[in-house]
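Subject: Re: docking follow-up (S-adenosylmethionine)

Dear J.,

Thanks for your patience while I sorted out the input files. As discussed at Tuesday's group meeting, I've set up the holo structure prediction with S-adenosylmethionine included as the bound ligand rather than trying to dock it afterwards. The sequence and the ligand SMILES I used are pasted below, so you can double-check that they match what you have on your end before we go further.
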Amino acid sequence: MYLTPTLKSPGNLIEYFLGHIHPQALTSCLASIVLAPEENSYVLEMCAAPGGKTSHLAQLMNNTGLIVANELYPSRHIPLGHTLERLGVLNTVITGYQAQEFPLKQRFDYILADVPCSGEGGFRKKKESSIYRETSEKQKLPDLQKKIILRGFDLLKEEGEMLYSTCTYNPEENESVVSFLLQNRDAVLLPLDAGFNSETGILEWRDGKYDTEVQKTARFYPHRINSVGFFMARIGRKR
Ligand SMILES: C[S@@+](CC[C@H](N)C(=O)[O-])C[C@H]1O[C@@H](n2cnc3c(N)ncnc32)[C@H](O)[C@@H]1O
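The structure tokens for the complex came back this morning:
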């Protein structure tokens, strides 16, 4: 991983087209680094397009093992496939299930649930469009995220690890979803040190009070880390 804050359009460089580089927000890179899949492991990325994190996971695994890159929308399989092909990823297959109904036939060593979210973490970058608007679609997100986190947990092997991540600040999409998992499954939150400045998860917001365990989650704020805002929770099974 290289930090290049002054490089304006890395996607126009010849190195990009040759598959030597893939530009990503720092916080997006940290998700794969925190999950840290071992070589020759089974990995599921539940919501994978356009593939920045999948390809980074493949790199960390030295192109060994197997990654299932799942993405619901067929139109997004095209950029996902392009990213994987351009970067020479060889250990990945693409599937098109609803993440919350991903078949329970195969369990995984590592799971990334980088779920669809309201995207508030990108507001600083987009500037002029940075006004939060409630829409009925946004209001439905926490329900979907809760279904995805439960299914992800059920797909984990006994010793498996899952990373739940969003690029939003909304506690209803973050701490509330993680608390819901803790209430409904034998899940534990694992320590999370991404090596960059972060705050712990919050314990209450408006009428919501969350499990005290959520203090083990991490909130990354743009003004602290100079990147897209992010939330991460590292999850394992109770033993
Ligand atoms: C935050 S983006 C994922 C970004 C991706 N992990 C990356 O690093 O490039 C969430 C993705 O989930 C997809 N998605 C939305 N609803 C889904 C569902 N129910 N099941 C699976 N994927 C879904 C969206 O189309 C979008 O591509």
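A couple of observations from a first look. The helical segments are 14-17, 26-35, 52-60, 77-86, 123-126, 136-154, 175-184, 222-225. The first helix runs from residue 14 to 17.

Let me know if you'd like me to rerun anything.

Best regards,
T.
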